[in-house]
From TrEMBL:
InterPro entries: Carbohydrate_kinase_pred_CS, CARKD, Nnr, Ribokinase-like, YjeF_N_dom, YjeF_N_dom_sf
Domain YjeF N-terminal, residue spans: 9-214
UniProt keyword list: ATP-binding, Isomerase, Lyase, Metal-binding, Multifunctional enzyme, NAD, NADP, Nucleotide-binding, Potassium
PROSITE patterns xref list: YJEF_C_2 (PS01050), YJEF_C_3 (PS51383), YJEF_N (PS51385)
Subunit text: Homotetramer.
Protein name per the record: Bifunctional NAD(P)H-hydrate repair enzyme
Amino acid sequence: MKILTADQIKKCDSATIENGISSINLMEKAANACVDWIQVNFKQAKRFLIFCGQGNNGGDGLAIARLLYEKGFDVEVFIEKNQMKFSADAEINFKRLKLIKGIDINNFSDVLIVNNEKSVIVDALFGYGLNRELSNDFKNLIEKLNQIPVPKISIDIPTGLYADKINEEESAIFKADFTLTFQFYKRSFLHPETGKFCGKIEVLDIDLNSKFIDEVKTDYFVIDGSLIRKIYKPREDFSNKGSFGKSILIGGSYGKIGAVLMSTLSALRTGSGLTFTMAPECGNLILQSQVPEAMFIGVGEKYVDDIEVQEKAVYGIGPGLGKEKQTQKALFDFLKSYQNPMILDADALNILAESQNLNLIPKNSVITPHPLEFERLFGKTQNSFDRIELAKEKAEELQIFIVLKDHHTAVITPERKVYYNITGNSGMAKGGSGDVLTGILTSLISQKYDIEKACLFGVWLHGKAGDLAAAEFSEESMLPTDLINKIGEVFQNLS
Ligand SMILES: NC(=O)C1=CN([C@@H]2O[C@H](COP(=O)(O)OP(=O)(O)OC[C@H]3O[C@@H](n4cnc5c(N)ncnc54)[C@H](OP(=O)(O)O)[C@@H]3O)[C@@H](O)[C@H]2O)[C@H](O)CC1
Ligand SMILES: [K+]
Protein backbone atom coordinates (compact mmCIF):
# COMPACT_ATOMS: atom_id res chain seq x y z
CA MET A 1 0.00 0.00 0.00
CA LYS A 2 1.36 3.38 -0.99
CA ILE A 3 1.94 6.08 1.62
CA LEU A 4 1.17 9.57 0.33
CA THR A 5 2.19 12.95 1.69
CA ALA A 6 -0.50 15.36 2.94
CA ASP A 7 -0.06 17.27 -0.29
CA GLN A 8 -0.58 14.17 -2.42
CA ILE A 9 -3.66 13.16 -0.41
CA LYS A 10 -5.12 16.60 -1.06
CA LYS A 11 -4.53 16.11 -4.79
CA CYS A 12 -6.04 12.64 -4.55
CA ASP A 13 -9.15 14.17 -2.94
CA SER A 14 -9.40 16.68 -5.79
CA ALA A 15 -8.98 13.92 -8.40
CA THR A 16 -11.76 11.96 -6.67
CA ILE A 17 -14.03 14.99 -6.64
CA GLU A 18 -13.30 15.78 -10.32
CA ASN A 19 -14.28 12.23 -11.09
CA GLY A 20 -17.87 12.55 -9.96
CA ILE A 21 -18.46 12.62 -6.20
CA SER A 22 -19.03 16.08 -4.67
CA SER A 23 -16.75 17.14 -1.84
CA ILE A 24 -19.65 17.25 0.62
CA ASN A 25 -20.64 13.70 -0.32
CA LEU A 26 -17.04 12.56 0.04
CA MET A 27 -17.08 14.04 3.54
CA GLU A 28 -20.34 12.22 4.24
CA LYS A 29 -18.79 8.97 3.01
CA ALA A 30 -15.79 9.50 5.28
CA ALA A 31 -18.07 10.26 8.24
CA ASN A 32 -20.22 7.21 7.52
CA ALA A 33 -17.14 4.99 7.39
CA CYS A 34 -16.16 6.26 10.87
CA VAL A 35 -19.66 5.81 12.27
CA ASP A 36 -19.90 2.26 10.90
CA TRP A 37 -16.64 1.42 12.63
CA ILE A 38 -17.69 3.13 15.87
CA GLN A 39 -21.02 1.31 15.95
CA VAL A 40 -19.30 -2.05 15.79
CA ASN A 41 -16.45 -1.25 18.15
CA PHE A 42 -18.11 1.05 20.68
CA LYS A 43 -21.50 -0.62 21.06
CA GLN A 44 -21.51 0.01 24.81
CA ALA A 45 -20.74 3.73 24.57
CA LYS A 46 -23.49 6.13 25.55
CA ARG A 47 -22.17 9.60 24.99
CA PHE A 48 -19.76 11.00 22.41
CA LEU A 49 -17.99 14.30 23.05
CA ILE A 50 -16.87 15.49 19.63
CA PHE A 51 -14.27 18.26 19.30
CA CYS A 52 -14.35 19.94 15.91
CA GLY A 53 -11.94 22.34 14.23
CA GLN A 54 -12.80 24.73 11.45
CA GLY A 55 -11.44 22.80 8.46
CA ASN A 56 -12.58 19.61 6.81
CA ASN A 57 -11.37 17.47 9.69
CA GLY A 58 -13.81 19.46 11.83
CA GLY A 59 -16.39 18.98 9.06
CA ASP A 60 -15.97 15.23 9.38
CA GLY A 61 -16.51 15.59 13.15
CA LEU A 62 -19.72 17.59 12.67
CA ALA A 63 -21.06 14.99 10.23
CA ILE A 64 -20.07 12.15 12.58
CA ALA A 65 -21.94 13.92 15.40
CA ARG A 66 -25.15 14.05 13.37
CA LEU A 67 -24.85 10.44 12.19
CA LEU A 68 -24.11 9.08 15.67
CA TYR A 69 -27.08 10.99 17.07
CA GLU A 70 -29.28 9.50 14.36
CA LYS A 71 -28.09 6.05 15.47
CA GLY A 72 -29.33 6.75 18.99
CA PHE A 73 -26.16 7.84 20.83
CA ASP A 74 -26.00 10.95 23.03
CA VAL A 75 -23.78 13.53 21.38
CA GLU A 76 -22.20 16.79 22.50
CA VAL A 77 -20.19 18.93 20.11
CA PHE A 78 -17.40 21.32 21.09
CA ILE A 79 -16.24 24.15 18.81
CA GLU A 80 -14.51 27.51 19.18
CA LYS A 81 -17.72 29.55 18.93
CA ASN A 82 -16.12 32.99 18.88
CA GLN A 83 -13.53 32.57 16.15
CA MET A 84 -15.18 29.96 13.96
CA LYS A 85 -14.78 30.39 10.23
CA PHE A 86 -15.63 27.00 8.87
CA SER A 87 -14.46 25.58 5.54
CA ALA A 88 -17.31 25.37 3.00
CA ASP A 89 -18.13 21.71 3.71
CA ALA A 90 -17.74 22.10 7.47
CA GLU A 91 -20.17 25.04 7.28
CA ILE A 92 -22.75 22.87 5.48
CA ASN A 93 -22.37 20.22 8.16
CA PHE A 94 -22.61 22.81 10.90
CA LYS A 95 -25.93 24.02 9.46
CA ARG A 96 -27.18 20.44 9.21
CA LEU A 97 -26.20 19.85 12.81
CA LYS A 98 -27.93 22.98 14.12
CA LEU A 99 -31.24 21.65 12.79
CA ILE A 100 -31.03 18.83 15.31
CA LYS A 101 -32.42 19.90 18.66
CA GLY A 102 -30.98 17.13 20.78
CA ILE A 103 -27.29 17.94 20.24
CA ASP A 104 -25.64 20.47 22.55
CA ILE A 105 -23.10 22.72 20.87
CA ASN A 106 -20.55 23.95 23.41
CA ASN A 107 -17.45 26.08 23.49
CA PHE A 108 -14.04 24.44 23.84
CA SER A 109 -13.77 26.23 27.15
CA ASP A 110 -16.90 24.40 28.42
CA VAL A 111 -15.07 21.10 28.61
CA LEU A 112 -15.52 19.58 32.03
CA ILE A 113 -13.78 16.65 33.60
CA VAL A 114 -15.80 13.75 32.27
CA ASN A 115 -15.62 10.67 34.38
CA ASN A 116 -18.22 8.53 32.81
CA GLU A 117 -16.83 5.27 31.57
CA LYS A 118 -19.49 5.17 28.87
CA SER A 119 -18.27 8.46 27.33
CA VAL A 120 -15.92 8.64 24.37
CA ILE A 121 -13.94 11.66 23.17
CA VAL A 122 -13.63 12.17 19.42
CA ASP A 123 -10.87 14.41 18.11
CA ALA A 124 -11.78 16.14 14.83
CA LEU A 125 -9.75 19.28 15.44
CA PHE A 126 -7.08 19.05 12.75
CA GLY A 127 -6.25 16.42 10.16
CA TYR A 128 -3.70 16.42 7.38
CA GLY A 129 -4.19 20.18 6.95
CA LEU A 130 -2.09 20.98 10.04
CA ASN A 131 0.77 23.11 8.71
CA ARG A 132 2.18 24.87 11.76
CA GLU A 133 2.54 24.39 15.49
CA LEU A 134 -0.66 24.66 17.51
CA SER A 135 -1.54 27.88 19.35
CA ASN A 136 -1.49 27.83 23.14
CA ASP A 137 -5.29 27.66 23.28
CA PHE A 138 -5.29 24.42 21.30
CA LYS A 139 -2.35 23.10 23.29
CA ASN A 140 -4.22 23.72 26.54
CA LEU A 141 -7.33 22.06 25.20
CA ILE A 142 -5.41 18.99 24.09
CA GLU A 143 -3.56 18.72 27.38
CA LYS A 144 -6.90 18.88 29.17
CA LEU A 145 -8.47 16.23 26.92
CA ASN A 146 -5.47 13.93 27.30
CA GLN A 147 -6.06 13.94 31.07
CA ILE A 148 -9.63 12.70 30.81
CA PRO A 149 -9.75 8.96 31.50
CA VAL A 150 -12.18 7.86 28.78
CA PRO A 151 -11.52 6.17 25.42
CA LYS A 152 -10.36 8.53 22.69
CA ILE A 153 -10.73 8.35 18.95
CA SER A 154 -8.91 10.57 16.45
CA ILE A 155 -10.38 11.19 13.04
CA ASP A 156 -7.79 10.79 10.29
CA ILE A 157 -4.77 11.95 12.36
CA PRO A 158 -4.33 12.70 16.07
CA THR A 159 -4.46 16.48 16.34
CA GLY A 160 -1.02 17.99 16.64
CA LEU A 161 0.69 15.39 14.46
CA TYR A 162 1.76 16.17 10.93
CA ALA A 163 1.03 13.52 8.32
CA ASP A 164 4.57 13.07 7.12
CA LYS A 165 7.11 14.77 9.32
CA ILE A 166 8.16 15.04 12.92
CA ASN A 167 7.09 17.98 15.10
CA GLU A 168 9.75 20.64 15.47
CA GLU A 169 9.36 21.20 19.16
CA GLU A 170 7.75 19.56 22.19
CA SER A 171 4.16 19.83 21.08
CA ALA A 172 0.84 19.01 22.63
CA ILE A 173 -0.51 16.05 20.68
CA PHE A 174 -3.86 14.35 21.19
CA LYS A 175 -3.24 10.87 22.57
CA ALA A 176 -5.67 8.57 20.81
CA ASP A 177 -6.60 5.00 21.63
CA PHE A 178 -7.81 4.57 18.06
CA THR A 179 -7.08 6.50 14.90
CA LEU A 180 -9.63 6.11 12.12
CA THR A 181 -7.69 7.21 9.09
CA PHE A 182 -8.86 7.58 5.53
CA GLN A 183 -7.49 5.32 2.82
CA PHE A 184 -3.76 5.63 3.57
CA TYR A 185 -1.33 5.14 6.41
CA LYS A 186 0.52 8.34 7.13
CA ARG A 187 4.29 8.18 7.73
CA SER A 188 3.96 9.74 11.15
CA PHE A 189 1.95 6.70 12.30
CA LEU A 190 4.94 4.46 11.67
CA HIS A 191 7.73 6.25 13.51
CA PRO A 192 8.31 5.78 17.24
CA GLU A 193 8.33 9.47 18.25
CA THR A 194 5.00 10.19 16.55
CA GLY A 195 3.30 6.81 16.18
CA LYS A 196 2.91 6.43 19.94
CA PHE A 197 0.05 8.98 19.81
CA CYS A 198 -2.10 6.99 17.38
CA GLY A 199 -3.19 3.96 19.40
CA LYS A 200 -4.63 1.27 17.17
CA ILE A 201 -4.87 2.34 13.54
CA GLU A 202 -7.87 1.54 11.38
CA VAL A 203 -7.57 2.41 7.70
CA LEU A 204 -11.03 3.15 6.30
CA ASP A 205 -11.53 2.84 2.57
CA ILE A 206 -13.44 5.82 1.15
CA ASP A 207 -12.93 4.92 -2.52
CA LEU A 208 -10.49 7.65 -3.42
CA ASN A 209 -9.54 7.82 -7.11
CA SER A 210 -7.75 4.55 -7.88
CA LYS A 211 -6.18 5.84 -11.12
CA PHE A 212 -4.56 8.69 -9.20
CA ILE A 213 -3.36 6.27 -6.52
CA ASP A 214 -1.90 3.87 -9.12
CA GLU A 215 -0.04 6.63 -10.90
CA VAL A 216 1.19 8.80 -8.04
CA LYS A 217 4.93 8.47 -7.33
CA THR A 218 6.13 7.77 -3.83
CA ASP A 219 9.16 6.27 -2.13
CA TYR A 220 7.10 5.09 0.85
CA PHE A 221 4.95 1.99 1.23
CA VAL A 222 3.32 -0.18 3.87
CA ILE A 223 3.84 -3.93 3.54
CA ASP A 224 0.33 -5.35 3.55
CA GLY A 225 -1.12 -8.84 3.23
CA SER A 226 -2.09 -8.38 -0.42
CA LEU A 227 1.50 -7.56 -1.37
CA ILE A 228 2.72 -10.64 0.49
CA ARG A 229 0.21 -12.89 -1.26
CA LYS A 230 1.73 -11.75 -4.56
CA ILE A 231 5.25 -12.50 -3.34
CA TYR A 232 4.63 -15.87 -1.70
CA LYS A 233 5.59 -18.85 -3.88
CA PRO A 234 3.92 -22.11 -2.81
CA ARG A 235 6.29 -25.08 -2.86
CA GLU A 236 6.31 -26.96 -6.12
CA ASP A 237 5.55 -30.66 -6.35
CA PHE A 238 8.20 -32.96 -7.81
CA SER A 239 10.95 -31.14 -5.95
CA ASN A 240 13.70 -32.31 -3.61
CA LYS A 241 15.77 -30.79 -0.85
CA GLY A 242 18.11 -29.34 -3.47
CA SER A 243 15.24 -27.32 -4.91
CA PHE A 244 14.95 -25.19 -1.80
CA GLY A 245 18.42 -23.85 -1.40
CA LYS A 246 21.28 -24.15 0.99
CA SER A 247 21.36 -21.83 3.99
CA ILE A 248 24.48 -21.43 6.10
CA LEU A 249 24.09 -19.63 9.41
CA ILE A 250 27.36 -18.41 10.85
CA GLY A 251 27.71 -17.25 14.41
CA GLY A 252 27.72 -18.36 18.00
CA SER A 253 30.51 -18.07 20.52
CA TYR A 254 30.93 -19.46 24.02
CA GLY A 255 27.78 -18.41 25.94
CA LYS A 256 26.00 -17.21 22.78
CA ILE A 257 25.29 -20.43 20.94
CA GLY A 258 21.53 -19.88 21.42
CA ALA A 259 21.58 -16.98 18.95
CA VAL A 260 22.83 -18.99 15.98
CA LEU A 261 20.69 -21.93 17.07
CA MET A 262 17.56 -19.76 16.78
CA SER A 263 18.64 -18.50 13.34
CA THR A 264 19.18 -22.06 12.19
CA LEU A 265 15.82 -23.24 13.47
CA SER A 266 14.10 -20.26 11.83
CA ALA A 267 15.76 -20.98 8.48
CA LEU A 268 14.45 -24.55 8.69
CA ARG A 269 10.96 -23.50 9.71
CA THR A 270 10.90 -21.05 6.77
CA GLY A 271 11.53 -23.85 4.31
CA SER A 272 15.27 -23.99 3.63
CA GLY A 273 16.17 -27.22 1.79
CA LEU A 274 19.62 -27.77 3.31
CA THR A 275 20.62 -25.94 6.44
CA PHE A 276 24.08 -25.68 7.98
CA THR A 277 25.33 -24.03 11.11
CA MET A 278 28.92 -22.82 11.02
CA ALA A 279 29.85 -22.26 14.65
CA PRO A 280 32.62 -23.00 17.16
CA GLU A 281 33.02 -26.57 18.42
CA CYS A 282 31.63 -25.63 21.85
CA GLY A 283 28.25 -25.40 20.14
CA ASN A 284 28.35 -28.76 18.37
CA LEU A 285 26.54 -30.87 20.96
CA ILE A 286 23.97 -28.17 21.67
CA LEU A 287 23.15 -27.62 18.02
CA GLN A 288 23.13 -31.26 17.02
CA SER A 289 20.84 -32.22 19.88
CA GLN A 290 18.51 -29.21 19.63
CA VAL A 291 18.29 -29.02 15.83
CA PRO A 292 19.05 -32.46 14.39
CA GLU A 293 17.82 -31.35 10.95
CA ALA A 294 20.77 -28.98 10.55
CA MET A 295 24.37 -29.97 9.73
CA PHE A 296 27.20 -28.64 11.83
CA ILE A 297 30.47 -27.20 10.53
CA GLY A 298 32.94 -26.54 13.35
CA VAL A 299 35.14 -23.48 12.89
CA GLY A 300 37.17 -22.68 16.03
CA GLU A 301 36.88 -23.82 19.64
CA LYS A 302 35.03 -21.09 21.53
CA TYR A 303 34.51 -18.60 18.74
CA VAL A 304 34.44 -18.55 14.96
CA ASP A 305 38.02 -18.29 13.67
CA ASP A 306 37.48 -19.20 10.05
CA ILE A 307 34.68 -19.04 7.50
CA GLU A 308 34.55 -21.78 4.93
CA VAL A 309 33.38 -20.79 1.45
CA GLN A 310 30.87 -23.22 -0.01
CA GLU A 311 29.32 -23.26 -3.44
CA LYS A 312 25.71 -22.25 -4.08
CA ALA A 313 24.92 -21.31 -0.52
CA VAL A 314 23.35 -18.25 1.04
CA TYR A 315 25.08 -17.03 4.18
CA GLY A 316 23.49 -15.36 7.19
CA ILE A 317 26.28 -14.08 9.42
CA GLY A 318 26.34 -12.50 12.84
CA PRO A 319 24.03 -13.92 15.51
CA GLY A 320 26.06 -14.51 18.67
CA LEU A 321 29.27 -14.15 16.64
CA GLY A 322 31.23 -12.01 19.12
CA LYS A 323 34.06 -9.69 18.14
CA GLU A 324 37.23 -11.69 18.93
CA LYS A 325 40.27 -10.64 16.87
CA GLN A 326 40.29 -13.98 15.05
CA THR A 327 36.57 -13.70 14.29
CA GLN A 328 37.12 -10.23 12.85
CA LYS A 329 39.91 -11.54 10.65
CA ALA A 330 37.77 -14.50 9.54
CA LEU A 331 34.95 -12.13 8.55
CA PHE A 332 37.23 -9.79 6.61
CA ASP A 333 38.98 -12.68 4.81
CA PHE A 334 35.59 -14.09 3.91
CA LEU A 335 34.23 -10.77 2.60
CA LYS A 336 37.37 -10.29 0.51
CA SER A 337 36.99 -13.69 -1.13
CA TYR A 338 33.24 -13.97 -1.53
CA GLN A 339 31.11 -11.46 -3.40
CA ASN A 340 27.61 -12.94 -3.49
CA PRO A 341 24.74 -11.28 -1.61
CA MET A 342 24.48 -12.34 2.03
CA ILE A 343 22.72 -11.35 5.23
CA LEU A 344 24.80 -9.50 7.81
CA ASP A 345 23.48 -9.01 11.33
CA ALA A 346 24.48 -8.26 14.92
CA ASP A 347 28.22 -8.60 15.62
CA ALA A 348 29.02 -8.92 11.90
CA LEU A 349 27.68 -5.36 11.63
CA ASN A 350 29.46 -4.21 14.78
CA ILE A 351 32.76 -5.53 13.41
CA LEU A 352 32.18 -3.70 10.13
CA ALA A 353 31.19 -0.54 12.00
CA GLU A 354 34.43 -0.53 13.98
CA SER A 355 36.55 -0.93 10.86
CA GLN A 356 34.31 1.39 8.78
CA ASN A 357 35.14 -0.90 5.88
CA LEU A 358 31.59 -0.87 4.60
CA ASN A 359 32.59 -1.19 0.97
CA LEU A 360 33.42 -4.82 1.72
CA ILE A 361 29.70 -5.62 1.94
CA PRO A 362 28.83 -7.42 -1.31
CA LYS A 363 26.32 -5.60 -3.52
CA ASN A 364 22.68 -6.61 -2.98
CA SER A 365 23.42 -7.91 0.48
CA VAL A 366 20.97 -7.37 3.32
CA ILE A 367 22.02 -5.76 6.58
CA THR A 368 19.66 -5.90 9.55
CA PRO A 369 20.70 -3.26 12.11
CA HIS A 370 18.63 -2.06 15.05
CA PRO A 371 18.84 1.72 15.60
CA LEU A 372 22.00 1.52 17.72
CA GLU A 373 23.79 -0.75 15.25
CA PHE A 374 22.67 1.60 12.48
CA GLU A 375 24.20 4.52 14.37
CA ARG A 376 27.46 2.61 14.84
CA LEU A 377 27.57 1.94 11.10
CA PHE A 378 26.48 5.26 9.67
CA GLY A 379 26.54 7.84 12.47
CA LYS A 380 24.06 9.65 14.68
CA THR A 381 20.83 11.21 13.45
CA GLN A 382 18.44 13.61 15.18
CA ASN A 383 15.38 11.39 14.96
CA SER A 384 13.91 8.34 13.23
CA PHE A 385 12.76 10.35 10.18
CA ASP A 386 16.34 11.52 9.59
CA ARG A 387 17.52 7.95 10.20
CA ILE A 388 15.34 6.74 7.32
CA GLU A 389 16.72 9.49 5.06
CA LEU A 390 20.29 8.49 5.92
CA ALA A 391 19.41 4.84 5.32
CA LYS A 392 18.09 5.75 1.84
CA GLU A 393 21.38 7.47 1.04
CA LYS A 394 23.48 4.56 2.32
CA ALA A 395 21.38 1.85 0.67
CA GLU A 396 21.86 3.61 -2.65
CA GLU A 397 25.55 4.38 -2.12
CA LEU A 398 26.45 0.82 -1.07
CA GLN A 399 23.78 -0.82 -3.28
CA ILE A 400 22.46 -2.88 -0.38
CA PHE A 401 19.15 -3.52 1.35
CA ILE A 402 18.85 -2.10 4.85
CA VAL A 403 16.35 -3.78 7.15
CA LEU A 404 16.12 -1.16 9.87
CA LYS A 405 14.65 -2.93 12.88
CA ASP A 406 12.22 -0.99 15.05
CA HIS A 407 8.63 -1.18 16.27
CA HIS A 408 7.74 -0.79 12.58
CA THR A 409 10.76 -2.30 10.84
CA ALA A 410 11.54 -0.58 7.54
CA VAL A 411 13.09 -2.18 4.46
CA ILE A 412 15.13 0.37 2.52
CA THR A 413 16.14 -0.62 -1.02
CA PRO A 414 19.07 0.50 -3.20
CA GLU A 415 16.48 2.44 -5.27
CA ARG A 416 15.68 4.43 -2.09
CA LYS A 417 12.26 2.90 -1.61
CA VAL A 418 11.08 2.52 1.99
CA TYR A 419 8.66 -0.24 3.00
CA TYR A 420 7.29 -0.12 6.55
CA ASN A 421 6.19 -3.35 8.18
CA ILE A 422 2.98 -3.27 10.22
CA THR A 423 2.94 -6.78 11.64
CA GLY A 424 4.59 -7.53 14.98
CA ASN A 425 4.28 -6.29 18.54
CA SER A 426 6.23 -5.23 21.62
CA GLY A 427 6.52 -8.84 22.76
CA MET A 428 9.21 -9.13 20.10
CA ALA A 429 11.37 -6.51 21.80
CA LYS A 430 13.47 -9.27 23.39
CA GLY A 431 16.96 -10.62 22.75
CA GLY A 432 16.72 -13.35 20.12
CA SER A 433 14.01 -11.87 17.87
CA GLY A 434 16.63 -10.46 15.51
CA ASP A 435 18.36 -13.84 15.26
CA VAL A 436 15.06 -15.31 14.11
CA LEU A 437 14.75 -12.67 11.40
CA THR A 438 18.26 -13.45 10.13
CA GLY A 439 17.32 -17.12 9.76
CA ILE A 440 14.09 -16.27 7.95
CA LEU A 441 15.81 -13.93 5.48
CA THR A 442 18.65 -16.37 4.79
CA SER A 443 16.14 -19.12 4.15
CA LEU A 444 13.97 -17.07 1.76
CA ILE A 445 16.94 -15.86 -0.26
CA SER A 446 18.36 -19.39 -0.46
CA GLN A 447 14.95 -20.46 -1.84
CA LYS A 448 15.54 -17.98 -4.67
CA TYR A 449 13.14 -15.31 -3.62
CA ASP A 450 14.26 -12.08 -5.24
CA ILE A 451 16.18 -10.18 -2.54
CA GLU A 452 13.81 -7.23 -2.24
CA LYS A 453 10.83 -9.56 -2.06
CA ALA A 454 12.59 -11.76 0.49
CA CYS A 455 13.12 -8.73 2.73
CA LEU A 456 9.47 -7.67 2.50
CA PHE A 457 8.18 -11.21 3.00
CA GLY A 458 10.70 -11.89 5.76
CA VAL A 459 9.88 -8.93 7.97
CA TRP A 460 6.16 -9.43 7.46
CA LEU A 461 6.36 -13.17 8.25
CA HIS A 462 8.49 -12.49 11.33
CA GLY A 463 5.94 -9.96 12.65
CA LYS A 464 2.96 -12.12 11.80
CA ALA A 465 4.46 -15.11 13.64
CA GLY A 466 5.14 -12.72 16.54
CA ASP A 467 1.48 -11.69 16.56
CA LEU A 468 0.36 -15.32 16.71
CA ALA A 469 2.82 -15.99 19.54
CA ALA A 470 1.55 -12.93 21.45
CA ALA A 471 -2.06 -14.07 21.00
CA GLU A 472 -1.20 -17.41 22.59
CA PHE A 473 1.34 -16.47 25.26
CA SER A 474 0.94 -12.66 25.78
CA GLU A 475 3.41 -10.00 24.70
CA GLU A 476 5.14 -10.24 28.08
CA SER A 477 5.64 -13.96 28.09
CA MET A 478 6.17 -14.92 24.45
CA LEU A 479 9.69 -15.98 23.53
CA PRO A 480 11.52 -15.79 20.23
CA THR A 481 11.37 -19.59 20.16
CA ASP A 482 7.55 -19.40 20.42
CA LEU A 483 7.66 -17.12 17.40
CA ILE A 484 9.71 -19.71 15.47
CA ASN A 485 7.07 -22.30 16.28
CA LYS A 486 4.37 -20.04 14.81
CA ILE A 487 6.05 -19.58 11.42
CA GLY A 488 4.26 -22.69 10.16
CA GLU A 489 0.85 -21.29 11.04
CA VAL A 490 1.59 -18.17 9.01
CA PHE A 491 2.41 -20.33 5.97
CA GLN A 492 -0.76 -22.37 6.54
CA ASN A 493 -2.81 -19.18 6.46
CA LEU A 494 -1.05 -18.06 3.27
CA SER A 495 -1.65 -21.17 1.23
N1 LIG B 1 -9.27 11.96 1.36
C1 LIG B 1 -9.42 12.22 2.58
O1 LIG B 1 -8.63 11.80 3.35
C2 LIG B 1 -10.54 13.09 3.00
C3 LIG B 1 -10.33 13.87 4.09
N2 LIG B 1 -11.23 14.65 4.65
C4 LIG B 1 -10.90 15.30 5.88
O2 LIG B 1 -10.30 16.53 5.58
C5 LIG B 1 -9.16 16.71 6.41
C6 LIG B 1 -8.25 17.73 5.84
O3 LIG B 1 -8.98 18.93 5.84
P1 LIG B 1 -8.32 20.37 5.64
O4 LIG B 1 -9.45 21.32 5.68
O5 LIG B 1 -7.46 20.35 4.47
O6 LIG B 1 -7.38 20.50 6.91
P2 LIG B 1 -7.61 20.50 8.49
O7 LIG B 1 -9.02 20.32 8.84
O8 LIG B 1 -6.65 19.53 9.05
O9 LIG B 1 -7.14 21.96 8.89
C7 LIG B 1 -7.90 23.06 8.55
C8 LIG B 1 -7.11 24.31 8.35
O10 LIG B 1 -6.55 24.81 9.53
C9 LIG B 1 -5.43 25.65 9.25
N3 LIG B 1 -4.32 25.30 10.15
C10 LIG B 1 -3.30 24.49 9.91
N4 LIG B 1 -2.51 24.38 10.99
C11 LIG B 1 -3.04 25.19 11.94
C12 LIG B 1 -2.70 25.53 13.26
N5 LIG B 1 -1.61 25.02 13.84
N6 LIG B 1 -3.48 26.36 13.95
C13 LIG B 1 -4.57 26.91 13.39
N7 LIG B 1 -4.97 26.64 12.11
C14 LIG B 1 -4.22 25.79 11.41
C15 LIG B 1 -5.10 25.42 7.81
O11 LIG B 1 -5.57 26.52 7.05
P3 LIG B 1 -4.66 27.85 6.83
O12 LIG B 1 -5.33 28.53 5.69
O13 LIG B 1 -4.74 28.63 8.11
O14 LIG B 1 -3.27 27.40 6.52
C16 LIG B 1 -5.91 24.18 7.47
O15 LIG B 1 -6.26 24.11 6.12
C17 LIG B 1 -8.61 15.32 6.52
O16 LIG B 1 -7.70 15.17 7.56
C18 LIG B 1 -9.89 14.53 6.71
O17 LIG B 1 -10.28 14.53 8.06
C19 LIG B 1 -12.54 14.84 3.97
O18 LIG B 1 -13.57 15.04 4.82
C20 LIG B 1 -12.91 13.62 3.12
C21 LIG B 1 -11.83 13.15 2.26
K1 LIG C 1 -7.97 14.76 14.19
